[in-house]
Amino acid sequence: MAAREPGEEEEVKLIKTWSSPYALRAVWALKLKGIPYESIDEDLTHKSDILLHHNPVHKKVPVLLHHGRSICESLVIIEYIEETWSHNPPRLLPEDPLQRAETRFWAKFVDDKALPSIWQAFSKEGKEQEQGLSETAEHFRLLEAELKKKKKRLFFGGEEIGIVDIALGWVVNLVPLFERILGVKFLDEERHPALLEWRQRMSDVDVVKESWPPRDKLVAKWTAIRERCGLRVIWALKLKGIPYDSIDEDLANKSDLLLQYNPVHKKVPVLIHNGKPVCESLVILEYIDEAWSQNPPRLLPRDPVQRASARFWAKFADEKVRYLVLLT
Amino acid sequence: MAEEENRVILHGFWGSPFVKRVEMALKLKGIPYEYVEEDLRNKSPALLTHNPVTKKVPVLIHNGKPVSESLVIIEYIDEAWKTTGPRLLPDDPYKRARVRFWADFLHRQVMEAMLVILKTDGEAQEKAVKELEEKLVVLEGGLKEEGVFGDNGGISAGMLEIVMCWCFGAYDLGEEVLGVKIVDWEKKAPLVYSWLQGIREIPVVQEIAPPKEKMVATLRFIRQSALKASNPTVPSS
């Protein structure tokens, strides 16, 4: 399975999107191992038949196609690549079973803990965001400690990049972006010297350097995601036929107006009605419904039990949508 | 130290399905081990030292070195004791990838859905039941296509069967707690259902299954605490 027969073409294809950090992991693994592959780029708003056929369970990228068979889930793909092209350096996982287990533990940690918490910090508001922020701080603390334990502190994989470094690729390009959009710092020299050195080292790796998605496009995409909470308010105002003025914020450079009206969270959206501010998108929706109760349609039912139910489902939907956009 | 040679210790909790997975793997392989029962409200210093990151069970200590996360532990057991007992994962990389994929699906998606069903009622529970049914149908379709039933790369009880067992194995206890049959298994996922019955009959499973009454009481307690803690205005049907 490992070495190519002379003259035989190993047909490897990778279904991905331009921005998915998960798909990027597979790209790096293939490039590091020097495995030629064909890229199939997806538009996740119009999923192709190929994607739906090869990943009917999750309908997500990345999907690796090899010998016509499909492998899904980025970490599973990396292990598959490692096992199938075991003679191609570099090793993405250590040989020793105990070290392999430790490596797998940290790779899972990234996907089960670190990514969900930073996503929560990025996409939520209020208390939930605070929780995301503090959990993310804790996760970076643990990662810093783990990196410091390595003798040479070069990569999580040792002297060369390995599966954990690949899994953490988003720290290199997305974390600075999130920091800019949110106006917070996740990594700093004082608490994360090793991680910051690692980040620099990762950026210098050739296959990493040459594979980044276009930065401007990424900034636009993630800013729009952060601001999608504002969309609900716009819809509510439009549904009710309420005229409004829109003030667009540059979240990297917040206006005095925003800071004045939302000193607590310093976030959008903020509705200003008769000079009074209302913050938090779901709170704003309720306010609009009550302040313009004569304007149809009703956004919430009149009956208290049904109102409670509606509130419950609004929050529930908020939670379920969480992962939807991150994985495109 | 001679006593450390191949000494295997498992830190666990009697009611945790994640711990049971590891126990089953060890027993299937015929690996002798010492078991340390943890009080999860008062975790031992050893546990906290060996798993400082998540501080959870199960933790396997082999020759004094710790391994955490049940699925990681199972792969470790398979690799460290490669020639002892049956293989827990197939040799072929593609089949391994599929086992990992489905194990992850069960671990992350199905178990979460089942927990939600246990902890909610009314509309929220109905929704969770529907989701579980959808996942079972997906599982049935996916596994059928790969011919997993009966031929898992030549393995009769491996990682996938282990995860299946401790994901669904106690479904009848769950039904006892909820007082109703939650999912119509036989109709929605007949192959998965009969595969599960076969797995439950593996002698090792009977050996390590927690006492039924204790499990039911614990599930009941989890449910009641969750319902009390949840939003009091959530409507119940």
From TrEMBL, chain A:
It catalyses: RX + glutathione = an S-substituted glutathione + a halide anion + H(+). This is glutathione transferase. It is an enzyme of class 2 (transferase). GO terms for cellular component: cytoplasm. Keywords: Transferase. Residues 10-89, 217-296 form the GST N-terminal domain. Belongs to the GST superfamily. Tau family. GO terms for molecular function: glutathione transferase activity. Pfam families: GST_C_2, GST_N. Its EC number is 2.5.1.18. Transmembrane segments: none annotated. Residues 96-225 form the GST C-terminal domain. The keyword Ribosomal protein does not apply. GO terms for biological process: glutathione metabolic process.
From TrEMBL, chain B:
Its main location: cytoplasm. InterPro entries: Glutathione-S-Trfase_C-like (IPR010987), Glutathione-S-Trfase_C_sf (IPR036282), Glutathione_S-Trfase (IPR040079), Glutathione_S-Trfase_N (IPR004045), GST_C_Tau (IPR045074), Omega/Tau-like (IPR045073), Thioredoxin-like_sf (IPR036249). One of its GO terms (biological process) is glutathione metabolic process. Coiled coil: none annotated. GO terms for molecular function: glutathione transferase activity. It catalyses: RX + glutathione = an S-substituted glutathione + a halide anion + H(+). This is Glutathione S-transferase. It comes from Linum tenue.
